[in-house]
């Protein structure tokens, strides 16, 4: 395609998507009063940094170990961008290595105030999980980080953020949350297939409903399809959310229709890797959920799902990392108490504002 035509086509696509080709509004001073969220690229693991307007922070998971500290370096780079010099709270959703593995390397690079977990590791048959659990315990023993074990119904002790534990250690919330229309019968249960528990740490994932003003943000770690069931059926205990951090990197073992159609996110952020997560079944459930399917919202991806196809990836403007050399680009989200928020792609500077509702 001639350069001019391609540029025009790109511009058209940009306009059609409502994406603004302006610099990402991610710098700390530009977002007074906002909650800032950074989605680090840890190649199909999780590492999500929340920074409250009061300056307190929460990191959910730490990515993988090894690779010369790649994931810890990427998290620290985002901390620098966010003006964070100490991690106040690091929550480990569960003890699989793509979540807890980065803890020792991270602790060697930046002070950690508190490590939050669901209780001791329960999966003793998997060597990598055992190694992650041991590294976690060694970090607790060799640093000043305090351990805090939380349970379903607990509120995380973080100023400026209302973060309630809705799953953990194999238990899920047994009553409806306030807000989001929670507490009604869930019409999506009947057509949502049942699946057995995995009997792994995934079933034990800590899940959070984070409320910031009018915004509701859901992060369930790698909580499994079977554990979503008692949380959402027959009564929807969560209600609608604005932002869904897609469980389990978009693997087809989480994100049942009973969950995703009921929470009906406006925006979903999938922390998939190039060759991990981003499965066609989970991608389809999220894309077909009510508010994304009717263009009231969007799915964003940390990577192109390279084992999938073009029909099961979002447009490139909403993907942080394309096939090829991996620069570890992040996505960020700046959220306001009135319910509006902006998602930004570090790779191309594109951003999109979602209005208050
Ligand atoms: Zn995972």
CATH H-tier superfamily? Ribonuclease Z/Hydroxyacylglutathione hydrolase-like
Please state the structural category. alpha/beta
Bound molecules: zinc ion
CATH class: Alpha Beta
- Helical stretch count? 9
Q: Tell me the number of strands.
A: 17
Strand arrangement across the biggest beta sheet = 6-5-4-3-2-1-15-16-17
Task: Please trace the helix and strand order, writing H or E for each element.
Answer: HEEEHEHHEHEEEEEHEHEHHEEEEE
Q: Strand-residue fraction?
A: 15-25%
Low-confidence stretches: 1-30
Q: In one word, what is the shape?
A: globular
Helix and strand topology:
Layout: H1 3-17, E1 35-39, E2 48-51, E3 57-60, H2 70-82, E4 87-91, H3 97-100, H4 103-107, E5 112-117, H5 127-142, E6 146-149, E7 162-168, E8 171-172, E9 207-212, E10 215-219, H6 225-232, E11 243-245, H7 257-263, E12 267-270, H8 280-287, H9 290-293, E13 298-303, E14 319-321, E15 331-335, E16 341-345, E17 351-354
Parallel strand pairs: 3-4, 4-5, 5-6, 10-11, 11-12, 12-13, 13-14
Antiparallel strand pairs: 1-2, 1-15, 2-3, 7-8, 7-9, 9-10, 15-16, 16-17
């Amino acid at each position: 395609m001639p350069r001019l035509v391609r540029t025009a086509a790109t511009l058209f696509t940009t306009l059609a998507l409502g994406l603004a080709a302006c610099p990402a509004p991610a710098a700390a001073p530009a977002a007074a009063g906002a909650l800032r969220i950074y989605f680090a690229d840890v190649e199909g693991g999780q590492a999500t940094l929340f920074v409250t307007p009061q300056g307190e922070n929460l990191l959910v998971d730490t990515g993988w170990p090894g690779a010369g500290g790649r994931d810890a370096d990427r998290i620290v780079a985002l901390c620098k961008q966010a003006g964070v010099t100490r991690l106040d709270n690091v929550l480990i959703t569960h003890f699989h290595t793509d979540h807890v593995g980065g803890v020792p390397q991270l602790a060697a690079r930046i002070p950690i105030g508190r490590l939050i977990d669901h209780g001791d590791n329960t999966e003793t048959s998997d060597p990598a999980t055992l190694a992650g659990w041991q590294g976690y315990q060694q970090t607790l023993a060799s640093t000043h980080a305090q351990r805090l074990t939380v349970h379903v119904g607990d509120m995380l002790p973080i100023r400026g953020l209302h973060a309630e534990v809705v799953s953990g250690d194999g238990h899920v919330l047994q009553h409806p949350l306030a807000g989001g229309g929670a507490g009604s019968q869930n019409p999506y249960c009947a057509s949502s297939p049942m699946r057995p528990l995995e009997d792994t740490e995934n079933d034990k994932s800590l899940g959070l409903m984070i409320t910031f003003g009018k915004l509701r943000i859901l992060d369930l770690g790698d909580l499994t399809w079977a554990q979503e069931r008692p949380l959402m059926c027959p009564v929807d205990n969560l209600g609608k959310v604005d932002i869904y951090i897609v469980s389990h990197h978009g693997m087809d073992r989480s994100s049942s229709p009973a969950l995703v159609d009921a929470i009906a996110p406006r925006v979903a952020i999938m922390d998939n890797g190039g060759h991990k997560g981003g499965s066609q079944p989970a991608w389809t459930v999220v894309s077909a959920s009510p508010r994304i399917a009717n263009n009231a919202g969007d799915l964003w991806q940390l990577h192109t799902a390279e084992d999938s196809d073009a029909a099961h990836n979002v447009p490139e403007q909403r993907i942080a990392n394309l096939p090829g050399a991996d620069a570890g680009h992040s996505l960020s989200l700046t959220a306001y108490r009135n319910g509006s928020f902006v998602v930004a792609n570090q790779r191309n500077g594109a951003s999109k504002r979602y209005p208050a509702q």
